[in-house]
Amino acid sequence: MSEDQTRAQRFLSAFSAIEDILSTQQYLRNTTEDWTPFSTLVHNSETLLHSHKEQLKRLAKLRNAIAHGDYRNGEPIADPREETVEQIAHIHNLLAKPPLLIDALAQSNKPRIFQPTDPISEFLSLVTQFNFSQVPVKVTKGYDLLTTNAVARWFAANYEAQTIDASVSDVLAYAESGDRLQTVNPSTTTVDAIRLFSGLADTSSEPPAALLVRGTMGTPPQKLCVRSDLTLLYAQLEGAN
After folding, report:
1. Each residue of 4-55: pLDDT tens digit?
2. Is the pTM of this model over 0.85?
3. In terms of C-beta density within 10 A (0-12 exposed, 13-18 middle, 19 or more buried), how is residue 10 classed?
4. Contact residues for 61 (Cβ-Cβ < 8 A; gap 6+)
5. What is the spatial distance between Cα 180 and Cα 126, in angstroms, rounded to a whole number?
6. CB–CB of 170/119 below 8 Å?
């Protein structure tokens, strides 16, 4: 957006760009007969946070007031505040160039990948030293998730033996459906990740407990994202709002 534009012009420009992106993403408004309402585009969007949807619904009223209000010398008289213009510009930027999950996790290390034959004592060491609560395990079909919850269930079933002489595979047998790990591509956006954790992306199965970001071909996974990272993910998207 040009710095020479008024706040109203910058606001309308960003609003129009958002409309174009949402309609393109949803394959709508391809003909003059198809004029899907903006409210529907926002409601059906899979690339907007709920909070941004609510903001856009409110900003749509302001857009109508500006676009259909009085004009002087070809420019709208109504003029939004600078913070309002920055707010809609921020949402437009998120849609035009969606932040990636892997960038939100830039400060985290690559995950330690366990093997089924590894002793469970190695995982317990990570739990006590680094406060880990889950790690990926390479299995035949891909990756499983070993969690402290599974360890607790395994221990409850075997406490009379008074031993931790068990393998990762032994403990994985006590995993439940909520201990699900889902692998995702490096191109996965932060909004995609939030939708996966919330269950919005797939209502046919329980939301994953963690996301494993795959590496490029022939390289190990790059990042592990767990539910406690959600605050970090939201912070990346909220930005300067």
Report:
1. 788 999 999 999 999 999 999 999 988 777 789 999 999 999 999 999 999 9
2. yes
3. buried
4. none
5. 20
6. no
